[in-house]
Amino acid sequence: YTHILYPNLKFNNLICKVFKFHFLFPYFFFFSPFWVLVRVFFYFFCFLNSSYMCNVCGRVLWYFYVFLWVKMYVFVLCVYYTCMLWWIFLCSLFYFIFFVF
Fold first, then answer.
1. Which domain of life is it from (predicted)?
2. What pTM was estimated for this model as a whole?
3. For an engineered disulfide with 3, which of 20, 50, 68, 70 has Cβ 3.0 to 4.6 Å away?
């Protein structure tokens, strides 16, 4: 039995191979609309697949993709707050040097 969206097992395996290749390079396209389309395509054609092997492959890639999104958000937040604290420190130092002394 195969799902109506996946009539051919070779096509299913091809989808998994393509996603394995694309997910090696997520940071280059991370905030582009391309990755929104990839996520939608991936969800409908791999994550919901009825074929067992491609379903396992799709789930692993999906979780890996979500992990990369979380990692990127944490990285951006850390950089943002680090820069903000650095500028607060520099402004405080500037104020202390030029207005206190």
1. Eukaryota
2. 0.31
3. 50
